[in-house]
TrEMBL record:
Pathway: Bacterial outer membrane biogenesis; LPS lipid A biosynthesis. Keywords: Glycosyltransferase, Lipid A biosynthesis, Lipid biosynthesis, Lipid metabolism, Transferase. This is Lipid-A-disaccharide synthase. The keyword Coiled coil does not apply. It comes from Atopomonas hussainii. Belongs to the LpxB family. Condensation of UDP-2,3-diacylglucosamine and 2,3-diacylglucosamine-1-phosphate to form lipid A disaccharide, a precursor of lipid A, a phosphorylated glycolipid that anchors the lipopolysaccharide to the outer membrane of the cell. The gene is lpxB. It catalyses: a lipid X + a UDP-2-N,3-O-bis[(3R)-3-hydroxyacyl]-alpha-D-glucosamine = a lipid A disaccharide + UDP + H(+). Its EC number is 2.4.1.182.
Length: 382
């Protein structure tokens, strides 16, 4: 372990990036005790000592239409962040996900002589493949979570390392469902459905009421079903509590305890996003639903080449889990898809078998591999 001081800048834009960033920080701290972290981080990263220039929540926006409304603020914040980072002179800048924000940031900082790493590949293999040219210009190194992504970058002469996914390392291969249910006050004699309508405010606005109405319908058809919902942040909890007002629906709200929710449940109604990977790793059957602004969806349908949107289906290379989008995501349709997954059935067992196989493929020691790749890039290998 080196005792020479090290300054590393990390910028994340949402909750999933905070998870990856925190794991990477811990791996880097294990190799370099005298490392300083600056940039933009979420609560997990802040708890590890990140000095954040502003709240990660300010970057948590998704969708073409939604971004336009926030564009002036995002551009202003990026301009100031570029100036702050160039002045701070970190040994390396690591942009985690948030490509529309981070790639421009990385390009400017790299031109100033600072090494840059992008962690989590944009979906260049699915749409806007010409972005790989910008990535090649902006990044000294790409770190990918999935092996098929690394192959794509190798073909386009972008330095790349496949590291696996830190969640696959963190999630145990076996969990004690009964113990967690007892801790949460849930019965082992009735099925448990987890509701996960997203970590962003816009997602919860579009999906929260739909998920609660679906849960009500499920309870009508299968009385006694227990409900729980992990809230990504205090802001999301307040938003969800407001949506629950006036409903006679017993939902156990948890503060960020996604792992407990997924351990305790039998199935999940979930928004498309990184949370679907976490549900896969906990081997919980799921129904994926998503709604976005109408124009955004219309445009993406014409640009995206992949037949799937959810990570479980992309990783499996097949329609393993139901994906129900836009106007097709009705209460009746979602309830009909969820109900069979709350009890043993062939569809459920097939999901669980493939989930276990994918878990092992992604279990690579991601944070340690990523930390080693970063340190090698800047000539500071332990």
């Amino acid at each position: 372990m080196s005792r020479q001081p090290l300054r590393i800048a990390i910028v994340v834009g949402e909750a999933s990036g905070d998870i990856l960033g925190a794991a990477l920080m811990q791996a880097l701290q294990a190799r370099h005790p005298h490392v300083e972290f600056i940039g933009i981080g979420g609560p997990r990263m802040l708890a590890l000592g990140m000095q954040s220039y502003f709240s990660q929540e300010r970057l948590a926006v998704m969708g073409l239409v939604e971004v336009l409304g926030r564009l002036p603020e995002l551009l202003k914040r990026r301009k100031q962040l570029i100036a702050d980072l160039i002045a701070a002179k970190p040994d390396v800048l690591i942009g985690i996900d948030a490509p529309d924000f981070n790639l421009g940031l990385e390009l400017a900082v790299r031109k100033a002589g600072i090494k840059t790493v992008h962690y989590v590949s944009p979906s260049v293999w699915a749409w806007r493949q010409k972005r790989v040219l910008k990535i090649r210009e902006a990044c000294d190194l790409m770190l990918t979570l999935f092996p098929f992504e690394a192959k794509f970058y190798q073909e386009h002469q972008v330095p790349v390392t496949f590291v696996g996914h830190s969640l696959a390392d963190q999630v145990p291969l076996e969990v004690d469902q009964a113990a967690v249910r007892a801790e949460l006050g849930l019965s082992n004699d009735a099925p448990v459905l987890a509701l996960m309508p997203g970590s962003r405010g816009g997602e919860v606005s579009r999906l929260g009421d739909l998920f609660f109405a679906t849960a009500q319908r499920v309870r009508e058809l299968m009385p006694g079903v227990q409900l729980l919902l992990p809230c990504a942040t205090p802001e999301r909890r307040a938003q969800l509590e407001a949506q629950l007002q006036g409903r006679e629906l017993p939902v156990l709200l948890l503060d960020g305890d996604t792992a407990k929710a997924l351990t305790a449940c039998d199935a999940v109604l979930i928004a498309s996003g990184t949370a679907t990977l976490e549900a896969l790793l906990y081997r919980r059957p799921m129904v994926v639903a998503y709604r976005m602004a109408g124009f955004t969806y219309w445009l993406l349908r014409r640009l995206v080449k992949s037949p799937y949107i959810s990570l479980p289906n992309l990783l499996a290379g097949e329609g393993l889990v139901p994906e129900i989008l836009q106007e097709k995501a009705s209460v009746e349709r979602l309830a009909a898809e969820v109900l069979p997954l709350l009890k043993p059935c062939a569809e459920r067992e097939q999901m669980l078998k493939r989930f276990a196989e994918i878990h092992l493929q992604l279990r690579q020691g991601a944070a340690e591999r990523a930390a080693d790749a970063v340190l090698e890039l800047i000539g500071r290998s332990a």
